[in-house]
Structure formats: C-alpha cells, structure tokens
C-alpha cells in the first residue's frame, strides 16, 4: 500500500492496520533524515499548514511545528487564547478566514470532542486532529506504538497496560484503538472512579491492582492525572493516588521481569512515576519525543501527497 485510506487524520478509529504500517515505514525514513547533519527535506515546499491550537499545548505544538519545518512547508501558527475566538468568533469563521489565505492543511487541537470531524465536513483542507477534548489524540497513539515497535520489535502480541486517569484521557482512547488494531493485548489500570463505564466494550481488561497489572504487561504507559479536566475529586489525595498507582524503582525491581515504561508527558514527577524511573534505562520517554517528530512528518507527508493528486 502506497497511500493512506483516509484524507484526514481525525482519529485512530478511522485507520486500518495497513495505514498504520505505512505511517511507520514512512516514519522510519524520516527518522533517518532527522539524524542527518542537514535535517530538512524539500518534500512540502508548496504546502501551507496552519496550526490551530484552541487549547494550551507545548510538546505537541512544538513537535508538529518542527515536523512541518523539517518538510519545508510554510507554517502559520494560530493560538486561540490571543485571538478573535475570545471575542465570540465561531470555529468555522476562524477557519474560513485562515483558509482564505490558501491553506492546504490544518492541524487542530480543540477542547470539544469531534471538533476536527466537524471541521473536515465544512472546510476544503486536510485536517489533522492534534487532540479533541477527552476524545482522541491520534498522533500520540501512533508515536507510542511506533516507540513500542522500535523497542520490542513489534506491537503484535505484546501486553500493554495503560495506567492512571483513563476517564479524561484522549491518549488512552487513541492508544486502545491503535494497539488493538495492531494485535496487542490491552489492559487499563487505575482507581475505579477514573475508569469509564463503557471501557469493556473496547475489548480491554480492567485491573485495579497496579502490581498485578505490571506483572502481566510488557509495557506500561503511565498517564498523568488531568486535574484541569476534573470538576469534582475522583480520589482522596495525590499522596494516596501515588501510594496506589505511582511507579517507583522499588516496585519495578520487585516484578517478575523487566518492563518498558512510557509516558506521553507532561510528567508529574513523584506522582505517577518517580524521577528515578523516568530517567532510567527502562523508560523510553525521550525516545517517544524524538519519534513524535518522525511520526508527525510521516502523517503530514502522506496526507499532503493526497492533496497534490
């Protein structure tokens, strides 16, 4: 397969296994480019990309921007907190204004689930979802799976546990879709209050005991607790959460085997994982960051090649 089956990246649930494979093979090529002395390729010299962030983001935004510049695209950055959105302008007005500047692709993060799907139906440009509310974050899930493939050889058959605030996490949902599509076994682990009711419909198992979950898995993807999305308290205190669901070196050493630790960032050091774990050889957190640029280059390049047709 030499092209994606989709014209937008709205969510992992719209991708098939061949799409994911193609993105990974393309990312392999770009990873080699990123490690050269001259890190740019002229692939997208004639493409203009608008980054629309209606929610704060540091790592995802920087990663997309870097990926776009490495591909030699023209980039427009738009941050909603400093824009007319504050004055009541609608999403479509904002985007149409940007599109009238002849933009080919829009990378968007938005607090409302489904915002990127809505946009793709109303706007003549390729849309990449950089996170919509607590719904999906497809490029994060792709770079997570890509990092597992790099570390363990493949994703198929691997046991992956996602630990923490599953309820508010778009990373968890996208990861579940991506891992299941590639044939991994998935478990979620966290306080009952932070695990959504519908989760068993997604074909994952639920475990509330962290040590059991870690003994089961090959890879543990540690999520932070998203206090900014919580209007009520879901557990007694951060200290109690850490005692039950935090990973430290003593716990890792007590397991039957060595497991790989991942984290989508930002890390609350000392809450979900200690600094000692985050900086250890078992953690591939910095590899995830590096792979994020290669994956985003791959996604942008593959979608752009469909625009050019």
UniProtKB/TrEMBL annotation:
Domain Aspartate/ornithine carbamoyltransferase Asp/Orn-binding: 157-302
Short name of any one Pfam family annotated for the protein: OTCace
Binding locations of L-aspartate: 87, 170, 224
Keyword Flavoprotein listed: no
Family matches, as Gene3D superfamilies: Aspartate/ornithine carbamoyltransferase
Pathway: Pyrimidine metabolism; UMP biosynthesis via de novo pathway; (S)-dihydroorotate from bicarbonate: step 2/3
Domain Aspartate/ornithine carbamoyltransferase carbamoyl-P binding: 8-150
Coiled-coil intervals: none
Binding site for carbamoyl phosphate: 59-60, 109, 137, 140, 265-266
Keyword RNA-binding: no
Catalyses which reaction(s): carbamoyl phosphate + L-aspartate = N-carbamoyl-L-aspartate + phosphate + H(+)
GO molecular function: amino acid binding; aspartate carbamoyltransferase activity
GO biological process, one term: 'de novo' UMP biosynthetic process
InterPro entries assigned: Asp/Orn_carbamoyltranf_P-bd, Asp/Orn_carbamoylTrfase, Asp/Orn_carbamoylTrfase_sf, Asp_carbamoyltransf, Asp_carbamoyltransf_Asp/Orn-bd
Keywords: Pyrimidine biosynthesis, Transferase
EC number: 2.1.3.2
Enzyme superclass (EC): transferase
Similarity section: Belongs to the aspartate/ornithine carbamoyltransferase superfamily. ATCase family.
HAMAP family given in the database record: Asp_carb_tr (MF_00001)
UniProt subunit comment: Heterododecamer (2C3:3R2) of six catalytic PyrB chains organized as two trimers (C3), and six regulatory PyrI chains organized as three dimers (R2).
The protein's role, per its UniProt record: Catalyzes the condensation of carbamoyl phosphate and aspartate to form carbamoyl aspartate and inorganic phosphate, the committed step in the de novo pyrimidine nucleotide biosynthesis pathway.
Protein name per the record: Aspartate carbamoyltransferase
Organism lineage string: Bacteria, Pseudomonadati, Bacteroidota, Flavobacteriia, Flavobacteriales
């Amino acid at each position: 397969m030499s092209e994606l089956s989709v014209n937008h990246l709205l969510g992992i649930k719209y991708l098939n296994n061949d799409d994911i494979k193609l993105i990974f093979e393309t990312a392999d090529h770009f990873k080699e480019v990123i490690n050269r002395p001259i890190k740019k390729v002229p692939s997208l010299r004639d493409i203009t990309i608008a980054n629309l962030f209606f929610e704060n983001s540091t790592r995802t935004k920087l990663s997309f921007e870097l990926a776009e510049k490495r591909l030699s695209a023209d980039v427009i950055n738009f941050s909603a907190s400093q824009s007319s959105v504050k004055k009541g302008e609608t999403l479509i007005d904002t985007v149409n204004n940007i599109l009238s500047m002849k933009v080919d692709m829009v990378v968007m993060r938005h607090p409302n689930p489904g915002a990127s799907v809505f946009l793709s139906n109303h706007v003549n440009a390729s849309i990449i979802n950089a996170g919509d509310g607590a719904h999906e974050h497809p490029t994060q899930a792709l770079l997570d799976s890509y990092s597992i493939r790099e570390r363990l050889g493949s994703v198929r058959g691997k046991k992956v546990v996602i630990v923490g605030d599953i309820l508010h996490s778009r990373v968890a949902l996208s990861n579940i879709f991506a891992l299941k599509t590639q044939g991994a076994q998935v478990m979620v682990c966290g306080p009952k209050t932070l695990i959504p009711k519908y989760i068993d419909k997604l074909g994952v198992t639920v475990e509330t005991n962290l040590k059991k979950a870690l003994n089961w898995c090959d890879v543990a993807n540690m999520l932070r607790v998203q206090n900014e999305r919580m209007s009520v308290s879901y557990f007694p205190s951060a200290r109690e959460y850490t005692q039950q669901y935090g990973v430290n070196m003593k716990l890792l050493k007590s397991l039957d085997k060595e497991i790989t630790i991942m984290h989508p960032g930002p890390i609350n050091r000392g809450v979900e994982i200690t600094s000692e774990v985050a900086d250890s050889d078992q953690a591939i957190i910095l590899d995830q960051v590096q792979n994020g640029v290669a994956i985003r280059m791959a996604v942008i390049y593959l979608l752009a090649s469909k625009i050019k047709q």
